Each structure stands twice: as structure tokens, then as C-alpha cells.
Here is the input.
Amino acid sequence: MSKGFLLVLSGPSGSGKGTVSEALMNKRDDIVFSISATTRKPRPNEVNGENYFFLTHDEFEMMKKNGEFLESAFVHTNYYGTPKRFVMDEIEKGEIVLLEIDVQGALQIKKNYKEAVFIFLLPPTMDELRNRIVKRGTETEEDINTRFSNAFKELDFVGEYDFFVVNDEVENAVKDIEAIIAAERLRVKRHKDIKLSVMSKEGKKC
Amino acid sequence: MSKGFLLVLSGPSGSGKGTVSEALMNKRDDIVFSISATTRKPRPNEVNGENYFFLTHDEFEMMKKNGEFLESAFVHTNYYGTPKRFVMDEIEKGEIVLLEIDVQGALQIKKNYKEAVFIFLLPPTMDELRNRIVKRGTETEEDINTRFSNAFKELDFVGEYDFFVVNDEVENAVKDIEAIIAAERLRVKRHKDIKLSVMSKEGKKC
Here is the structure.
């Protein structure tokens, strides 16, 4: 029986972690997205327990106090967080849980749950990073500069991660992540009774 | 600049580590075999520094005393060992050094150099393990039983390894090992200045 694991895909704004996550999910059926909790109101089509776990401020704060989040953040006027229970349940079932998250969130998770597999997604060049930030198109020059400067600073945290993947082409990045997944599936520590499983096949003759 | 690593491919007698190592080496040109040192006399076609490093007993013992071996063993009347220097030099050059070794040797290396990547090769079933031991054909029934019983005991050490690979078909085992290699190549700790390498491409605009 093999346990799954939490795959933390992280990187600065403009590294393309959203696109890569989506491409990876579309390609495989052994990965589930981690579902976040939030205190913001559900939008018309959003379903509780599917898009988010929607919580009141009180509920969120109580869970936070009880250490029930792998990470959490207060953004504008609302809390967001990754509930530990959902992740752990899926891992026990053998699933890979994918969490796409910014660098600050990933560093929080590393403190709380270092058994996760941490991948830092890198832009191929700083020029390309800037292009990607600019292409979002909805921001002022000042916003762009701030994002770029933050992204630049966040590259310093790559040393805290297990693996790095250069996102030059989405396809290549997905292939690299799949190699990491294949290797992590072969990790001894995620398997119980490896010896027993060899012995139990075709009967024991020993 | 990326450093290589030591890949320790190990497993009990009959796991097929020799066949798998050879198939892996034939497929790739970024892997070098670790060269052992020995005190036995060279055979006619053997070249010093290629097949083995041939040493006198005194030389071997001196190196052993100085901690210059990753592991060593005394077999029948001769010493065999893995010189640290060769492995480290190749790793610095960025090479993957493949060491195919029995379980006892791998456990010694783990004590001396835990940065290596340890793979335990498993037979698909105990019946198949016995078949493979029998197929060697040069041994008595008693030898076969001893080998089988030792192999069975050695399976207990799988927990000391990083990864396990089931050798049902050589091709599949090689594919699994290649996934592990691909992932290990993406390990942050084997790379210096990841940030710098992103910055230096296409000039810095920051």
C-alpha cells in the first residue's frame, strides 16, 4: 500500500505556476488539487467543498488557533488557508495532492509539514519574467515594477526547496515535474511492507 | 553549474543489479561506473585505472586506515573497496557515478556518504528470486539455499534506502531508475547559483 504526498508547486509571480499546474492536472488522473478555505463570500457558481471551503471569520480563526491549517494568509479583507485534514486524507488514500502557492505560503508549509515535496518554478530569464508580468495587462507601471522586484527577491528562497524546474516551455516543465512524481512514487518511506509485498506475490515458498 | 551524484544500485543476489546496471550504462552517456580498488592480481586483459585500481595489500591497508574508501570488504584472500577520490572527482565534473554493490557494501556507504542516492532493486517475487539464483547454474543445492536465505534476510534493509525499484522487466527497471536520475538532476542542493543562472541569461535588466 502506497501513500501519496503533497506536491507544493510554487514560484514567484510570472513563473507560470498556474498554467503549469493546469497542464499537469489535465494530463493525469492521480493528482487532486488541494482545496483552500476562505472567508470570502462564494461567487454564484462556486460550490462549498469543491472550489473552496467557505468559512466564517470565527470558524477560520478557530481552525487557525487549533493549528488546522498548513498555511494561511490574510489578503485584503479575507483569510485564505490550506486545511491540513483534506490534504492528509487524500495522501492516506494514495493520492498526490497538488498545491499551487506563492513563495510565502510555501515557506509556511515547509515549517509545518516538511514531508511535502517542494518544487520551485523558475522563469527561463528575467526578461521573460518581466514580459509575463506585463502581459497580465491589468496593472499600472508601478504595480508591474513592484511585482517584478518582489519576484526578483523571491528567487532567493529557491534554496529552501527540494527541486527546481525551469518553465521555458509548459510542456518541458510538466515533463520535469512528472519525473519528480515518478521518482517520489518510488520512495521507500511512502511504502509500508515492501518485503511483504514481494513475498505475497505468487505465494511464499520460503 | 550542476554537480553530479553517486547512484548506489544495490539489492540481494538474484535481484538482477548487474543486468540492470549494464542496460542503464548502454543507454546513457552521462553515467560512469565507479572503479573499485582491489589487491587481487590483474587478469591478462585488465587495465589499471580502467577495470580496477590494482593495489598491494600495504597500499590498500594504508588507504583504508586513512579513510580513503567509501566502503571495503575482504573477500576470500583479497581486499576490494570503492576509493572516495575517484567518485568525488567525477561528481565535481557533473557526472553520475554508478556503483553496483551488494547490500552490506551499500550500508557501509550510507554511513560514510549519505549524500549518495540509494536504490534498492527488488525481485518481482520470491519464486523469481529463487529461479534467478538457480539459473546461475554453477552452484550446489546448499549454495542456492544459502544465497536464497541471505537474499531473503537482506530484503529487511530496504528501509535504509531512498528508493526501491522492482525488477520485473529490465526495461521497466531502467525506466524507473531514469526517472529517479531525472528528478535528482533537478535537486536544488546540487546546483550553485540558480538565481544567478536565471539572471545571466539574455542580460540582466534589473
